Amino acid sequence: MIAVNAHPRYPMKWARPLELGGSNGSHHSNTLNKLAKKGMVNFRFREGAEPADGENGKRFFASRGAKLYRITPAGRNALDKENS
How far is Cα 62 from Cα 44, in angstroms, rounded to an integer? Predict the structure, then answer.
Protein backbone atom coordinates (compact mmCIF):
# COMPACT_ATOMS: atom_id res chain seq x y z
CA MET A 1 0.00 0.00 0.00
CA ILE A 2 1.29 3.47 -0.92
CA ALA A 3 1.43 6.13 1.77
CA VAL A 4 -1.22 8.83 1.31
CA ASN A 5 1.17 11.58 0.19
CA ALA A 6 3.64 9.34 -1.68
CA HIS A 7 1.63 8.52 -4.81
CA PRO A 8 3.99 9.04 -7.77
CA ARG A 9 1.36 10.34 -10.23
CA TYR A 10 -1.20 12.08 -8.02
CA PRO A 11 0.52 13.90 -5.14
CA MET A 12 -1.79 15.04 -2.38
CA LYS A 13 -1.25 18.78 -2.29
CA TRP A 14 -3.75 21.62 -2.22
CA ALA A 15 -4.24 23.34 -5.59
CA ARG A 16 -6.37 26.09 -7.10
CA PRO A 17 -8.54 25.26 -10.15
CA LEU A 18 -6.19 27.50 -12.19
CA GLU A 19 -3.29 25.19 -11.28
CA LEU A 20 -5.35 22.22 -12.45
CA GLY A 21 -5.88 23.57 -15.96
CA GLY A 22 -8.77 25.93 -15.34
CA SER A 23 -9.16 29.47 -16.58
CA ASN A 24 -11.47 32.35 -15.83
CA GLY A 25 -15.00 31.16 -16.60
CA SER A 26 -14.05 27.50 -17.20
CA HIS A 27 -15.91 24.48 -15.86
CA HIS A 28 -13.12 23.37 -13.52
CA SER A 29 -14.53 24.75 -10.26
CA ASN A 30 -17.96 23.27 -10.97
CA THR A 31 -16.45 19.91 -11.90
CA LEU A 32 -14.27 19.89 -8.77
CA ASN A 33 -17.31 20.64 -6.59
CA LYS A 34 -19.17 17.70 -8.14
CA LEU A 35 -16.15 15.46 -7.53
CA ALA A 36 -16.08 16.66 -3.89
CA LYS A 37 -19.70 15.54 -3.47
CA LYS A 38 -18.65 12.08 -4.71
CA GLY A 39 -15.64 11.96 -2.35
CA MET A 40 -13.03 12.04 -5.13
CA VAL A 41 -11.52 15.36 -3.99
CA ASN A 42 -11.56 17.43 -0.81
CA PHE A 43 -11.69 21.19 -0.65
CA ARG A 44 -10.82 23.84 1.85
CA PHE A 45 -10.96 27.62 1.87
CA ARG A 46 -7.67 29.47 1.53
CA GLU A 47 -8.22 31.39 4.75
CA GLY A 48 -9.68 28.42 6.60
CA ALA A 49 -8.10 25.81 8.78
CA GLU A 50 -7.05 22.43 7.46
CA PRO A 51 -10.13 20.17 7.51
CA ALA A 52 -10.06 16.78 9.22
CA ASP A 53 -9.26 13.77 7.04
CA GLY A 54 -12.18 12.92 4.78
CA GLU A 55 -13.96 16.22 5.40
CA ASN A 56 -14.23 19.47 3.48
CA GLY A 57 -13.60 22.97 4.75
CA LYS A 58 -16.49 24.97 6.17
CA ARG A 59 -17.21 28.65 5.74
CA PHE A 60 -20.43 30.63 5.57
CA PHE A 61 -19.43 32.99 2.76
CA ALA A 62 -16.91 32.28 0.01
CA SER A 63 -15.45 34.80 -2.35
CA ARG A 64 -14.61 33.72 -5.88
CA GLY A 65 -11.42 31.76 -6.11
CA ALA A 66 -11.36 31.00 -2.42
CA LYS A 67 -11.27 27.19 -2.61
CA LEU A 68 -8.30 24.86 -2.81
CA TYR A 69 -8.72 21.22 -3.80
CA ARG A 70 -6.79 17.97 -3.43
CA ILE A 71 -7.39 14.43 -4.59
CA THR A 72 -8.51 11.82 -2.08
CA PRO A 73 -7.41 8.19 -1.92
CA ALA A 74 -10.77 7.27 -3.54
CA GLY A 75 -10.02 9.68 -6.38
CA ARG A 76 -6.57 8.18 -6.83
CA ASN A 77 -8.00 4.67 -6.94
CA ALA A 78 -10.52 5.72 -9.61
CA LEU A 79 -7.74 7.25 -11.75
CA ASP A 80 -5.50 4.21 -11.29
CA LYS A 81 -8.32 1.90 -12.43
CA GLU A 82 -9.09 4.08 -15.43
CA ASN A 83 -5.43 4.32 -16.47
CA SER A 84 -4.56 0.63 -16.02
Answer: 11
